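Quick one, T. Sequence first:
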Amino acid sequence: MVNFTILAGVQGISTVISTFSFMPGPGIGCNGTLSLISQANAGTSPSWIQQSPHNSSILYANNEVVDGQLVSFTIGEQGEVNLIANTTSGGNGPAYLLALKQSKEVAILNYGGGNGLVVPLQDDLLNFVTQPPPPLITFNPAPAPISHPHEAVEVGDQLFVPDLGADKVWRLNKTSAGTWNITGFITQPTGSGPRHMIVQDGIMYLLHELASLLTSQKIPSNDETSSPFISMSLITPAGVNTSDYGAAEIQMPRTTPEFPERLIYTSNRQIAGTEDPRGDSIAIFSLASNGSFSLVRQVHTGLQQLRGFIVDPSGRYLVAGGNVAGGVKVFERIHGGTDLVQVAASEEVPTASTFVWL
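Structure tokens:
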């Protein structure tokens, strides 16, 4: 049986990245084990982590604090991480980073500051180029409503940035000088709070935190700011007060012979009201080739404030954590991915919000 290694970070007062070992059970749906094997200093509030797309032994993390930081690490043979370098995020409360696939750069977005940086990397991919300093990108400058950029996604040669405060998806292009500028935007419903997105086949699937809404639409041309919605659906369980919830994460697992159906997973996060004893749910949607989707199932996880989850590269397992309580749990995808069953859990780390499968 193959052993899996999982890295986990968490938003809040935590100062560590944790390494877990997951051993699957003997058959489909059988219980396995999830054990904490090491922890390492990561600065305060490493709420988003990502493996380098150019070197699997390198990891990046944010520090989601007032004086935000971007941090790099090496990953050892046992999954242990070692902090190597750090640099400023340029603002307050960076909630997300993206190590770019098409260049040696890391984008980091300051949720609290309404701005962000795209930081060049030195050749070792661990140290950051800080001279000259990368220019600060300011979204929706005053006196417009404050921006809360929450993600960056590579779309061709552009970066798309969902902005929860401005209800826009910003388009960024690289200049001839090698820096990034805002070149346009795609409007979203007022008050919906676009947070995270996935792009596939020219269609963007956008999760709106404030409205607990999933939408799909074709990407408009560069000179247009809108396009009709293909599908739109609440992601919350039936009968709940949607104002008590804030949508958090979206994943589209790749299809395989074992999991041939195109699916979208989204996480609900109860942030107010009487706590659901079943915990937060993951909503599973079936996806058609034209970009339309329909709800298949709500899977309650027993986690409180399910901020982050991720499917492993094989497509069989999903790891999730509670940002408030519930620890870390591993679920197995069953029935072709249209359902989930819990197969391992650990509360050795009581909260977690971001993960990497090694």
